[in-house]
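Customer escalation, tier 2.

The customer says the design service returned an amino acid string that "doesn't look like it belongs to this structure." They asked us to rerun it and document both sides in this ticket. The original structure tokens are below, unchanged.
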């Protein structure tokens, strides 16, 4: 009994020749189909017989050949190998043509407000047979998922001081900031951008009690520490607090289109560069799938549209 770890060194060319001989019942017919000489076909069969232990795969007859018992045993296995290879070729072609396969991506919540849906809609219209899964999360969590191989691509931002240097970054856009104020606030009728320092004495509504690692880092860069009066995580709730006059809040440009009518957005003067950059991150050293490449292109197209609409 052969060792269970033994793996015969069998060429797929030999199996192809074997199936052609079995189909034609002659070396001559197989040679004609393959465009080979009869002696070349005979050598391939001899090599296959040797690799499989030496048993004859065909009985030689006065006119042609017929399968031996060993040959009849081998036929379904050879056909299975051939079908598996054909299946692999079909799937690889589908991947190249983005007519199949999968796309796994993640995005931070604000990107899901407009940038990602527009890109995903365009991608689905072009490649409807690709299986898409998405995750939402904070940038550090998405990067961990990317490193672990659970995502092909992640839409991330520079907010939170995440260690982006370890990844391949594909720049999508730079976001400006707005400050959301109640409709009756003196700044609600202000023309043009304002320095954030004008709101140094304001109560702030933020997703965390400390400004570090949040959009309120912009205040620290302008020389004041904002007073966080209310910690509110969900963006819709933040708007409610602002509308009630309980404080002001920073709003990234990607979320600007979803602001309720009883608050106003005042652009923040960019001092020292944009508030944050948005990237599509991929794992360094890991090739992006054809579907991933196409989705990255859709994200770039969406970024152009979003930038022209919200940051003009």
């Amino acid at each position: 009994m052969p060792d269970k770890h033994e793996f015969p060194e069998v060429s797929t060319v030999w199996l192809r020749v074997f199936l052609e001989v079995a189909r034609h019942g002659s070396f001559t017919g197989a040679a004609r189909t393959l465009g080979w000489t009869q002696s070349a076909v005979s050598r391939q069969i001899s090599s296959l017989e040797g690799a499989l232990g030496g048993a004859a795969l065909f009985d030689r007859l006065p006119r042609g050949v017929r399968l031996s018992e060993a040959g009849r045993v081998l036929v379904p296995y050879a056909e299975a190998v051939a079908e598996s290879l054909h299946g692999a070729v079909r799937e690889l072609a589908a991947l190249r043509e983005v007519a199949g396969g999968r796309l796994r991506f993640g995005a931070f919540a604000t990107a899901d407000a407009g940038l990602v849906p527009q890109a995903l809609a365009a991608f689905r219209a072009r490649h409807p047979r690709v299986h898409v899964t998405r995750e939402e999360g904070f940038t550090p969590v998405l990067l961990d998922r990317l490193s672990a191989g659970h995502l092909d691509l992640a839409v991330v931002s520079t907010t939170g001081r995440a260690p982006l240097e370890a990844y391949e970054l594909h720049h999508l856009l730079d976001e400006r900031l707005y400050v959301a104020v109640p409709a009756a606030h003196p700044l609600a009728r202000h023309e043009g951008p304002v320095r954030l320092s004008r709101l140094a004495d304001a109560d702030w509504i933020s997703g965390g009690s400390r400004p570090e690692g949040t959009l309120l880092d912009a205040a620290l860069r302008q020389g004041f520490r904002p007073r966080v009066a209310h910690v509110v995580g969900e963006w819709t709730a933040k708007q409610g607090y602002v509308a009630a006059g309980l404080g002001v809040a920073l709003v990234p440009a990607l979320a600007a289109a979803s602001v309720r009518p009883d608050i106003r957005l005042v652009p923040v003067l960019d001092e020292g560069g944009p508030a944050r950059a948005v990237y599509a991150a991929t794992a360094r050293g890991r090739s992006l799938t054809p579907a991933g490449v196409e989705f990255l292109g859709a994200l770039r197209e969406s970024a152009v549209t979003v930038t022209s609409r919200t940051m003009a």
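Tier 2 assessment: The sequence is consistent with the input. The chain has a mean pLDDT of 88. The two ends are 76 Å apart (CA to CA). Sent an explanation to the customer and offered a walkthrough call.
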